Task: structure prediction
Amino acid sequence: MPPSAVPNVPGQYANWYMDFEKRMKDSLRVASNDVTRRLRTAEGLQGNKLRNARAAIRAVMSDINTEQYALLKEGRLDAARLAARIVGEMEAPVLAAAFTDSSISAYLMSEAARVASGLDMALARMRGDVYVPLSQQVYKTGALSNGIVDRILTNAFIQGQSAAQIAAAVRSSINPDVPGGVSYAAMRLGRTELNNAFHASAVSRMSEQPWVEGVTWNLSDSHEGEDECDDLATADNGLGEGVYPQDEVPDKPHPQCLCFVTAELPTPDQFIEAMLSGRYDDYIAKVELEQDPVTMSQQGG
Result:
């Protein structure tokens, strides 16, 4: 791929994810602040104090799960759209050698819509046997989080802690500004789900284009120590080091992996030559890209 066509993939993703992470943390802070009110209400109820407290906290946890599911569902779609846009930035300089601006713009919008609408299928295809739908992932994390707060409550009652002390302990577990606990599980799920959605969508976006000559696995700048990612970035599949055929791009090998993929593309001159030979005819007709006669003449077409 021409150097000028390589966008700052990790930088764009990081900037986008920071905004999403803020929304996740704000949601957890709201839930954390709701704990005191719920426990105060439970304290005034008749019956078993531990059971009442547990029911109150379960209501908070249910709210967290509902909000988390909504945030992640929309966040995954945003990640898919971002991946499609970034791949479009890779393609644009090559496409500009032959096609009108308006048809390129329409094509890029159409591809972004295709990738977003096909996100679940792309994830299932990429993840294979380990694929778990988002609703089930949120449920599993919710069950883990319920176990965490149940242990906090049980230990607090055994120790005879006051309602204020119990509320503080539960709030700390949910508060994203305090390490560990419920917030860690929630944020870890968010990072992994959005990462997987971005990766699967980038691969899906590169899957059909006949001018994509391969997909390169790039190590993240934050990558530390050798692991499976190093193997993926150095494997030779006949296309060069770390370059994979469109239909053989690996899944992320571990949670929170920040490695990324880029498209191997021809130079504008190579693109024009291949196009004039008819190599791209079927796909160009399918996506309705319109040739620009002025640009083509400048390229010698």
User: Anything to note?
Assistant: The two ends are 21 Å apart (CA to CA). Strands lie at 214-218, 243-244, 260-264. Residues 3-298 form one domain.
